[in-house]
Specification:
Layout (H helix, E strand, L loop, with lengths): L2 H12 L5 H11 L5 H8 L3 H22 L1 H12 L4 H12 L1
Helix pairs in contact: 1-4, 2-4, 3-4
Length: 98
Amino acid sequence: MDKKIYFNNLYDYYSGLFTEKQKDYFEAYYFQDYSLSEISENYHVSRNAVYGQIKIVEEKLEFYEKILGLYQKNKKIKELLIDADEKLKKKIEEIMEG
């Protein structure tokens, strides 16, 4: 799987565990496709500071997924839903959406 898509998927599950600064940098880099230089200019910090924070988020995303496995579990549930009857699908989807 493409690294960008993978981290975006993990971020959907674990974004609440990061600081605002980490979220800002990560979202600018991965969602808005800004370069490290553009982000550093926008936030008036060094390019190295931006790079460091993005790397921390990436490492933590992988760590959280390794421990909690929310993304993989959800992926498996969605695969199982393909073969489920419509009534069961609807109930499970409602539970998953929370």
